[in-house]
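**User:** My hope is that you can spare some time for a protein that puzzles me. I have put the entry right below:
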Amino acid sequence: MLDIARIRDDFPILQRRVGERPLVYLDSANTSQKPRQVVDAIAEHYLQHNANVARAMHLLGAEATEAFEGARRAVAAFINAGRPEEIVFTKNASEALNLAAHTLGSRLRPGDEVVISVMEHHSNIVPWQLACERSGATLRWFDVTDDGRLDLEGAVREDLINERTKVVSLTWVSNVLGTRNPVAEIAAQAHAVGAVMVVDASQAVPHQATDVVALGADLVAFTGHKMCGPTGIGVLWGRYELLAELPPYMGGGEMIEVVEMSRSTYAPPPHRFEAGTPPIAQAAGLHAAVDYLTSVGMDAIAAHEQNLTTYGLEKLGSIDGLVILGPTEAVDRGSALSFNLTGVHPHDVMQVLDSRGIAIRGGHHCARPLHKRLGHQSSTRASSYLYTTREEIDALADALVFTRDYFAPRFGG
């Protein structure tokens, strides 16, 4: 079991108060809070080791380069990558997915197909739309069942993954529904027809032990700021053989071998995809975040969140007038809980809860097609993490009952 009191001591922001009430932070799917160990690592880098990487041939340059490449090694070990060179640093998961879509998209032709799902974050929809528009390929997608699972039977009926499929790109865990998708199974289907499997793991890597080899994917994207790290740094992991085949995404310094006026040659992965000055201090912070999560234990974090999710589903499910989006049992499910109160707009829910010190998110969570499919304009989302307590779930439930009763005259209560 986690020592939650000790963990919470590492996050000074959790000691804040909102007026007379303690802060209840339930927006970790949006961005996680940062432990002092991560903040200290970033400050130390700027104060003691600041220089550019791979360019400056002096002590500070060597220290900065070692910090950056050390972070690459740490991230590789954290997700069981085959080698550090399989880790490409980006500014966030959106850039990682755009990199995947742009480079893989250069190989698409009319008649080819790309498969995504209706539950994707916009970052895993729009880049593939653009790739298909540029290439003439066709975009297709998995539907979802009414309870928020991928419609695997419907996909078989529609022959969704077939000999024309060149790329399958899916979220591992939905940022709205919490649904955990059978990525390894779908990756096997993709590979059977010669397609590349891309995974958006932004809501998975922070919450559970990850083995990209066992996952069966070819490219995996995630971001630092959702896993106790800083903003400004994301990751694209890829099988080295595939990365070596892909063209550059952006041109500039450090991604080249030789530049002539007539043509250029490019560095091997990962540097081929890291043009210009990279997020050096952010990498130091991500390294500290990886060390922190490893010290706590990813299996322990996953067990804690499973317990909280079970408890949260029970508490919220018992509130009259509250509708949960997605699976209502904590089976193959992450910790994001999205819901609606009948007759109350999510923005109103969010505002009332904020007045009571509870931070959640209201809107379509960058997943508008999913909300439309499920018949909701938007939703309210509460999301927990390693520092969340049962008492905070209780505070959420009490505040939702208050909110429902406050707006009751609007819908006949």
Q: What stands out?
A: The chain has two domains: 4-28+298-406, 38-294.
